Amino acid sequence: MKIKLSTLAASLTLVNLFYAMPAKAAKTTYIPDGYSIKTISTPKDVRFHVTGMDSNNKGELFVATRFGDVWRYKKNNWLKVAEGLHEPTGLMCDQDGSIIVAHKPELTRLVDEDGDGVSDRYINMASGWDFHDNYHEFNFAPVKDKQGNYYGTLNLGHGVPDSLSIGAMDTAGGYRGWAYQVNQQGEFVPYAYGLRSPAGIGISPNNQVFFTDNQGDWVETSKLHLLKKDAFYGHPVSLRDHPDWTVEKILEQKDNFNLFDQMREYPVVWFPHAEVANSPGNPEWNVTKGKFGPFEGQIFIGDQTQSNIFRVILDEVNGIYQGAVINFIDGFQSGNIRTEFDNKGQLWVGQTARGWYSKGGKPFGLQKVVWDGTNPFEILSVKMIDGGFKVTLTEAMTKASAQKLKVEITEWGYKYSNRYGSPKEDEKSLPIKSLNVAEDGKSLIFTTDLTERKVIKFKLSGLKDAKGRSPSVPIVYYTVNQVK
């Protein structure tokens, strides 16, 4: 394989420039009562960019770093268990005790045969895609379903020689921009296509695979998708590997935005750019059975640029997923790309800046979020009802604050095209038609005008509980795919 020198030089320049930047201290501006961020010491003199992370049922944490090492964290001690991998960006602890690592050229199973904690065998599980030695050709994986199938997502390239480009990202073929499955027989199966930079993959408690994708060309703003077999997710260049398409056909249709728009799957939720996320990582479900507070069943996602974590609350309307996005905590030390709940209910946060900017300021690190048992006063859940929404709180608001409660609503859409992201389109305020607070003060219902394929932002002002607390984040972003 040959490396395109201009691409390599650009990548190295970005990294060098980043490391020359002075690190700024992260500042936390919102965090729920009862939660705190703890910083974990990483191995000395190691550039510990955490790009893959999982824990096993013993509570041991395993971390893959972008420079090719795999480490185990046990009883406050680090042990290097593997090395020599090619920029890993995903890791999973399998039920048999082995570790599966996604790195650029393949999906590799690490096996410790003699029980000393260090991997003795590196087994190629899958490598059915083309890797052109491009800095942007990441492999994000895996998750495993209950039937024993594994799933991953393959990033598009940037500046790959002899590639198809109708935007910022490109592909020279070989299933770049595709999701894949490794089935129970160990076969590599091209699964879905049209992905751009799908930096996070996760699986829900009910066995459904989801992935995030990053804002850019053909992606209006960052988003969360449900992964479906043979579905198209919006970026046309990956169609070059589809049997019904050719490079010539794609180029003929490259400006036919309506065609691709009609073909594509719409996101479960949009993440408003910069307000929530620029570069989201993996979706992680809170199934800690209350060990992490009141947000059971919700999805927690970190962002590499914003150095924050936000919550996603799924809502199913007319059989279609949609839902709410609420910022949770900011002020982490670096870019949050991996999240993982352990068996104690702690939320581990793996971090890297990788030469790109992150608000946290530090180039890499590992932190965790812990809960001390205090029930916070926050927006707990959001659910669409006929003509509006029901918002539930973690604690009751006082009657005095209920009388002062104010709800401000804004709506907008995004324009799908080959340009890099989209500004908000047709942004406007929406009227409050009715507003009612429950007798117990723990929920409120409001009605307004609802339109499909819009994002609704609403802000709750004036809320106080009996302790005088206000929600740390009073703003909700709700993606409307269906209207009741």
If you had to describe this structure to a student in words, what would you say it looks like?
The chain has 484 residues and is mainly β. The chain folds into two domains: 367 residues, Neuraminidase, CATH 2.120.10.30; 102 residues, Immunoglobulin-like. 7% of the residues lie in helices and 38% in strands. It has four helices and 34 strands. The strands form eight sheets. An eight-stranded antiparallel sheet has the order 20-21-22-23-34-33-29-30, with no helix packed on it. It has a four-stranded antiparallel sheet with strand order 1-26-25-24, with no helix packed on it. A hairpin with a 4-residue loop joins strand 21 and strand 22. The longest helix has 16 residues. The protein starts with a helix and ends with a strand.
The first-level CATH class of the largest domain is given as Mainly Beta
Outline, from the CA principal axes?
globular
Output mean pLDDT: 95
The CATH superfamily title of the largest domain? TolB, C-terminal domain
Q: Which stretches of 5+ consecutive residues score pLDDT under 50?
A: 1-22
What is the helix fraction of residues, given as a range? Answer: under 10%
Label the structural class. Answer: mainly beta
Q: Please give the order of strands in the largest beta sheet.
A: 20-21-22-23-34-33-29-30
The CATH topology of the largest domain = Neuraminidase
DSSP strand count: 34
